[in-house]
């Protein structure tokens, strides 16, 4: 209900309309969805996860566990919004979650009646047997009932962005301590970013209105904000939540940009990726619930939250509110309610004595204060109708019943230590205030071993204004000083507020509550975890707090236990007869509240999801029907299907045409590294297994590269450009990797060798012109003499080919007469067109990577990544000829001398020919009799490459087989996809033109 | 002469921060001993400019020099002047260990122009672009989204970006999306 003359944040002349479950409702600008729902007397807002119990608002901020709704429709639908964090806008559409058929009548509530049969660990106990039931029976049912809101069915059409920023000091939390910290750090000269998760600055002080520097808190806040706004080294961002703190001063803050606007363009959220020298967490504190029977009935909420609703939004939950507390702070709520003209029939204070300043103020207003009292049970179903009162000491004998429609509770305060803890900040137990607070001696440590996070204010355990604001100021100053900023920061702000008596921890209400009562005391509202569940977990041996959490699901809901954790672990501690600090806390992990995946993704979606590397003639491929395949981040044409042709048929055609006429391949992706210097030859002799230093200028040589362990990592053709320059071709995937590999050795091991490496991969468009008519094609373009004598096999030359600056390599990966021609990338499209035009009368066709693979396999050429997998040495591939025996050393030489590498039983490369001409399955194993030490079927080999060869008209394959080269002619059996086996004969891997006559014409 | 095209083929966007292809630019990767007087003088003879300091970039029309690493410069000349510049460098540094290669076609150059260029880049690059730290004359080698890039302020409202040719479309689209999303309002007054 709405109160007159209250609500400092709302504009009563600006009505706003919205719907909840289709019902039209009215609120005001400045309302949150939570306050607007209360104004419309909508107390029932959702259903709990397990028992489908009615749920109402408990809190007023990020910690709200109950009031989750789905917002928006269609491509803007999003589940699990906390209504407390949703700013009301005109036309807002909200729906409650987790009920069927309706919020008012939910059949799932039957689970509540069965709660005796749904104890903690129910799922683990019930669904373990029979095993086979899990996949087909249990899991589908559980999946259906799991989750609160429904996942959106269409893609989110908002945009999101990231923003990178480096600051000296990041302050998280815009309450008085955060403001004071910012002021101090900024005055010292540091660059400061201050973020606040809500729309309003000032935190709780704006509601409780203590005095700072002789002013009302609000005035001090306004003045401070005004001062900060004039400082060029300060950035203030509200609606921006400090989501996570990570190593090296990295933090994520998520800014809400448009949800509070009716109309907007631009991104919906901005994820600030902050690199900070020092981080100050001024994140405040969260009030704790009390564990009494039926503390989950709608209408029971936190005392501070109720105060927020009354003061900020002028709304209340009911006319008559009973307060139950163990501390003085809650009396502020009683006073605020009475001042707003509402009735407070009683304050039940669990402490034996209550005499602080606030208590006396309450008494002075005529509020009935009952000390030593507790709630035995809340009455009501979908809404509070009254409370039964009992003594706190004892088992709950009812002394009185009080009719009321709202219960405000306060079990004390817990500092928000999440961001302090994300990166390893440790906590200490404060016995006086019964809270975990940051241990200043064990902060998260940076790379230099020094702490980089400071907790400040209430988040640091200072619940009172004077200490809190002074602590914030000190934290700001110290953070700036730690970074070397030494300007004067001025005087510490002086806070002043009511003097309070100490709180008294109450973990169970009443102290000796019976089982029946404890079974109705909710710890975790969202996941329905009760005091008895935690006690059962302890009883069943789940003593570690992390185990108890997972067994009971305490704190595993979307609110991550912001309200429930402390009460849960106090209950666990009591059950184990241990002190609370001995039990400890569960791990605090980012983000503080759930972030949309879209915010984390940022702009990296759709066509910007991943970079696609394009060759100079990518557009031509795309325009001419290329069927692309990813090769690293490149997209390479797999084949170019024509008309109704299948991809397979296209590949067959491309191979045949290349073997009979002439084919063109876009080989631009192959790595090209220039290696130059007086020591370049010596260096390449170390890099490659064979000799490169003695390669003559103008000649090419195929080379192998191994890792230190001797495993084959790359191959390619090396060309000697001049006396001290070599051009090393790598595989497509190897360009960056091998460049880095070379730089690694040059920078870290052989730093005194005079060698420079440059990666010029993308400088060139490089095309392979392949087939018996390749020479005729190039001669048609003209300008260079490319006869057998002028440019023999494995040589290169350069000059003007037609209109183009060309370097021509006479190399072949197909077994055909073949040239690879490199031109500057900017000339690539024109050169490709020229090749196609000149080749037209010769029947030229482009071919893709699959035709390339088939042709190389027909020739028995290996492919890095097919025949190698990181465990294969060149000797396994019968490449002894490419391993120098003269060299004293090369990378991998020593590795290849190890026993296992010399084992005659290693799997070695052979050709495989099926007996019936069919194609072997890719990756198929060759099983043999018997089992290995692990009881697994023994295998003797596997297929590494397998294709249908149109040239030979049958399946061909290569594989690694134990002792293979010595077993020529033997027939072994391979597995088949979908079961069964296939016989294949071990043969020579060179299936086509073994003497190499075709490439040598 | 055959037709020559840049990777971006003159693409450009509108909007308050414009992204456009800078076209074919001549670029030479020069590795060597940067403290060597001959190197400095030959670079000066091809660009008319003095060597920049660490992390620096100097530019004058078509020519420029960017410091890329302790032993690497990017020498910028007009696209057609590269062969001549390479000849000059080879002659001047003959007998001295160095490497000079034409990388004009291995790169794509873009220009961003408008009121909030810093923020357009800051959305994509994990580096400090605050005016206290980044001013015209300083080159940054970092990344834009998921690709490597180098960039510098030509003036307060203009950023020149160099990335690898194969990812030019990605980088362009990324910068265009960043510009289209509008300013963050973080870096003070029009920067």
Strand order of the largest sheet of chain B: 1-7-10-9-8
Major pleated sheet of chain A: 7 strands, mixed
Question: What percentage of residues of chain A falls in helices of 4 or more residues?
Answer: 10-25%
Percent in helix of chain B: 10-25%
Give the assembly state of these chains: heterodimer
Question: What does this protein look like?
Answer:
- The complex is a heterodimer of chains A (1001) and B (191).
- With 1001 residues, chain A is of the alpha+beta class.
- Chain A has 26 helices and 50 strands.
- In chain A, the strands form 13 sheets. In chain A, strands 8, 9, 12, 13, 14, 15 and 28 form a 7-stranded mixed sheet that branches. In chain A, strands 41-42-43-40-34-44 form a 6-stranded mixed sheet. A 6-stranded antiparallel sheet of chain A has the order 46-47-48-45-50-49.
- In chain A, helix 8 runs parallel beside helix 9 and helix 14 crosses helix 15 (545-552).
- Chain A is elongated.
- Chain B has a 5-stranded antiparallel sheet. A 5-stranded antiparallel sheet of chain B has the order 3-4-5-2-6, covered by helices on one side.
- In chain B, helix 1 packs antiparallel against helix 2 (82-92).
- The longest helix of chain B has 13 residues, at 168-180.
- Helices cover 21% and strands 32% of the residues of chain B.
- Chain B folds into 2 domains: 17-23 and 106-180, Probable tRNA modification gtpase trme, domain 1 (Gyrase A, domain 2, 2-Layer Sandwich), CATH 3.30.1360; 26-105, Alpha-Beta Plaits.
- Chain B has 191 residues and is an alpha+beta fold.
- Chain B has helices at 37-47, 82-92, 117-122, 168-180, and strands at 17-21, 26-31, 57-60, 63-69, 72-77, 99-102, 107-114, 139-144, 147-155, 158-164.
């Amino acid at each position: 209900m709405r109160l007159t003359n209250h609500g400092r944040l709302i504009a009563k002349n600006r009505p706003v309309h919205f719907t909840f479950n289709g019902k039209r409702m009215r609120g005001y600008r400045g309302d949150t969805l939570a306050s607007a729902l209360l104004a419309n007397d909508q107390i029932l807002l959702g259903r709990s996860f397990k028992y489908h119990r009615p749920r109402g608002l408990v809190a007023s901020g990020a910690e709200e566990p109950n009031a989750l709704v789905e917002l928006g429709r269609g491509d803007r639908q999003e589940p699990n919004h906390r209504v407390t964090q949703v700013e009301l806008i005109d036309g807002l559409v909200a729906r409650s979650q987790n009920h069927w058929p309706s919020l008012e009548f939910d059949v799932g509530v039957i689970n509540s009646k069965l709660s005796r049969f749904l104890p903690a660990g129910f799922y683990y106990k019930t669904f373990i047997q029979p095993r086979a039931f899990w996949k087909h029976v249990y899991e589908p049912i559980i999946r259906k009932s799991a989750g609160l809101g429904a996942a959106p069915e269409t893609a989110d059409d908002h945009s999101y962005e990231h923003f990178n920023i480096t600051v000296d000091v990041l302050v998280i939390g815009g309450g008085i301590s955060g403001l004071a910290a910012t002021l101090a750090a900024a005055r010292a000269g540091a660059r400061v970013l201050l973020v606040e998760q809500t729309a309003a600055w000032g935190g709780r002080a704006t509601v409780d209105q203590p005095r700072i520097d002789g002013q009302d808190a609000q005035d001090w806040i306004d003045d401070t904000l005004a001062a900060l706004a004039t400082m060029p080294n300060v950035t203030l961002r509200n609606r921006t939540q400090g989501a996570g703190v990570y190593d090296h001063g990295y933090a994520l803050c998520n800014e809400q940009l448009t949800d509070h606007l009716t109309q907007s363009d631009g991104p919906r959220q901005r994820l600030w990726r902050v690199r900070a020298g020092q981080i100050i967490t001024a994140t405040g504190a969260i009030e704790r619930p009390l564990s009494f029977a039926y503390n989950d009935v709608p209408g029971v909420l936190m005392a501070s939250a109720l105060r927020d609703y009354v003061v900020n939004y002028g709304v209340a939950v009911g006319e008559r509110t009973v307060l139950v507390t163990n501390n003085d702070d809650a009396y502020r709520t009683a006073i605020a309610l009475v001042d707003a003209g509402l009735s407070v029939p009683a304050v039940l204070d669990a402490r034996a004595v209550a005499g602080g300043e606030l208590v006396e103020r309450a008494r002075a207003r005529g509020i009935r204060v009952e000390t030593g009292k507790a709630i035995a049970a809340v009455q009501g179903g979908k809404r509070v109708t009254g409370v039964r009162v009992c003594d706190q000491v004892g088992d709950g004998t009812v002394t009185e019943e009080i009719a009321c429609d709202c219960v405000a509770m306060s079990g004390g305060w817990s500092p928000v230590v999440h961001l302090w803890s994300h990166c390893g900040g440790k906590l200490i137990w404060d016995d006086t205030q019964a809270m975990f607070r940051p241990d200043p001696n064990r902060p998260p440590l940076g790379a230099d071993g020094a702490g980089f996070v400071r907790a400040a204010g209430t988040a640091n355990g200072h619940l009172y204004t004077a200490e809190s604001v002074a602590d914030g100021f000190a934290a700001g100053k110290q953070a700036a000083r730690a970074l070397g900023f030494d300007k004067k920061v001025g005087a510490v702000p002086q806070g002043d507020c009511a003097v309070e008596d100490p709180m008294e921890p109450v973990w169970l209400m009443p102290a000796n509550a019976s089982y029946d009562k404890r079974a109705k005391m909710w710890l975790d509202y969202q996941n329905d975890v009760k005091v008895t569940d935690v006690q059962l977990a302890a009883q069943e041996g789940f003593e570690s707090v992390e185990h108890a959490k997972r067994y009971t699901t305490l704190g595993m809901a979307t609110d991550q236990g912001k309200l429930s954790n402390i009460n849960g672990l106090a209950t666990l501690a009591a059950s184990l007869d241990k002190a609370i600090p001995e039990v400890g806390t569960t791990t605090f992990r980012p983000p503080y509240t759930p972030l949309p995946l879209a915010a984390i993704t940022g702009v990296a979606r759709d066509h910007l999801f991943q970079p696609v590397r394009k060759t100079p003639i990518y557009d031509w491929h795309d325009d001419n029907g290329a069927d692309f395949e990813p090769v690293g981040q490149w997209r390479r044409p797999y084949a170019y299907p024509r008309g109704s042709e299948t991809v397979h048929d296209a590949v067959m055609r491309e191979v045949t045409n290349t073997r009979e006429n002439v084919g063109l391949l876009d080989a631009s992706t192959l790595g090209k590294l220039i290696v130059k210097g007086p020591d370049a030859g010596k260096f390449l002799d170390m890099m490659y297994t064979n000799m490169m230093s003695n390669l003559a200028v103008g000649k090419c040589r195929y080379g192998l590269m191994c890792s230190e362990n001797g495993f084959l990592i790359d191959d390619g053709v090396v060309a000697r450009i001049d006396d001290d320059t070599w051009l090393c071709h790598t595989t497509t995937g190897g360009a960056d990797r091998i460049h880095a590999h070379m730089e690694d050795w040059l920078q870290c091991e052989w730093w005194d060798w005079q060698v420079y490496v440059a990666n010029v991969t993308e400088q060139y468009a490089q095309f392979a012109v392949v087939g018996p008519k390749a020479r005729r094609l190039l001669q048609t373009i003209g300008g260079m003499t490319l006869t057998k004598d002028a440019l023999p096999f494995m040589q290169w030359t350069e000059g003007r080919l037609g209109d183009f600056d060309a370097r021509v390599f006479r190399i072949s990966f197909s077994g055909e007469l073949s040239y690879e021609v490199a031109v500057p990338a900017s000339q690539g499209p024109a050169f490709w067109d020229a090749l196609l035009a000149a080749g037209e009368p010769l029947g030229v066709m482009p071919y893709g990577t699959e035709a390339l693979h088939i042709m190389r396999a027909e020739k028995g050429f290996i492919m890095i990544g097919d025949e190698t997998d990181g465990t294969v040495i060149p000797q396994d591939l019968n490449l002894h000829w490419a391993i120098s025996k003269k060299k004293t050393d090369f990378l991998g030489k020593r590795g290849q001398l190890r026993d296992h590498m010399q084992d005659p039983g290693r799997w070695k490369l052979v050709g495989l020919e099926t007996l019936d001409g069919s194609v072997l399955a890719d990756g198929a194993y060759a099983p043999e009799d018997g089992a290995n030490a692990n009881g697994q079927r023994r295998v003797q080999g596997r297929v590494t490459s397998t294709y249908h060869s149109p040239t030979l008209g049958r399946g061909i394959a290569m594989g690694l087989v134990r002792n293979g080269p010595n077993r020529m002619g033997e027939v072994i059996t391979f597995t088949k996809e979908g079961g069964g086996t296939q016989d294949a004969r071990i043969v020579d891997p060179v299936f086509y033109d073994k003497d190499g006559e075709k490439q040598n014409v | 002469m055959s037709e020559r095209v840049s990777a971006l083929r003159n693409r450009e966007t509108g909007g308050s921060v414009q992204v456009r292809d800078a076209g074919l630019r001549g670029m030479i990767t020069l590795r060597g001993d940067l403290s060597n007087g001959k190197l400095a003088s030959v670079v000066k003879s091809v660009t008319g400019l003095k060597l920049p300091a660490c992390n620096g970039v100097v530019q004058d029309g078509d020519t420029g020099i960017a410091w890329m690493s302790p032993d690497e410069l990017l020498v910028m000349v007009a696209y057609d002047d590269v062969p001549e510049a390479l000849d000059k460098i080879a002659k001047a540094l003959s007998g001295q260990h160095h490497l000079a290669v034409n990388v004009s076609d291995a790169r794509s150059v873009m220009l961003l122009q408008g009121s909030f260029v810093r923020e357009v880049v800051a959305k994509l690059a994990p580096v400090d672009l605050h005016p206290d730290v980044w001013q015209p004359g300083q080159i940054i080698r970092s990344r834009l989204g998921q690709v490597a890039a180098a960039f510098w302020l030509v003036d307060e409202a203009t950023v020149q970006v160099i990335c690898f040719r194969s990812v030019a479309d990605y980088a362009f689209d990324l910068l265009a999306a960043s510009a289209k999303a509008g300013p963050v309002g973080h870096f003070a007054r029009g920067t």
